Known about the structure:
single chain; alpha/beta; six-stranded parallel β-sheet; two-stranded antiparallel ribbon; 51% helix; globular
Amino acid sequence: MKEKFLGVDVSNYTYDQLKKNIMTDINEHRKSFIVAINPEKILQAQKDADLLHLLNTATYQIPDGVGILIASRMTGGTIRERVTGIDMLLALCEQASLHGKSVFLYGAKPGVAEKASHRLKEMYPDLKIAGIIDGYEKDQDHIKDTINQAKPDIVFVALGSPRQEYWIVDHMEEMDAKVFQGVGGSFDVLSGRVKRAPAVFQKVGLEWLYRLIKEPWRIKRQIKLPTFLLKVLKTKK
Length: 237
Ligand code: UDP
């Protein structure tokens, strides 16, 4: 089920529902495309009709950002839990390892996805990692052939947004894999190159504050949250 914020669909599924639905999608040979939605992307889509269309094309738009939860409460919606890109990736790796499905890691700087794959294997020893390509490979045919030959069920694409989402819609029909998720900087985090906020910050919804302290330039992105909420409020009847 979906809620709409400024024209952008967001799924109100929890991790458990998503895991179940996506595994069913794989088993029933349906393709699915997962995109993480945050207020910044929704605002960007206000000025970019292609992006708006692209976000709405996805099968599952996960609510990745406290701003979405606030907007959902304000509009009488039911989204109460954040679903982050990286936790969705982990949830899918867990499911893949439990059900004998395989994953492919495409994106990030050379060497980063390898390190991320080692971390994933530590967490899920039974996980089948079908292959890896870094995000700076230019030869599109090579990328497509390598992924198809590896025959993964799930492809994680880490090229940054919205590039990774455009890559997914442009290629998913010609690929055999079933599930495609845009995962942004997740391989950097898994490889240990970039640190995530301590669990306590994540739990109380203050991951943004931790990131702001570590990377003060983020203020430019975070300042957009009040703008987003005001716009949502204005469209509320
Ligand atoms: N990246 C890539 N190829 C490119 C540009 C970027 O693989 O041509 C990778 C980059 O190395 C990083 C990720 O894309 O791993 C972008 O991460 P970021 O945190 O910026 O993602 P976002 O904030 O868009 O989710």
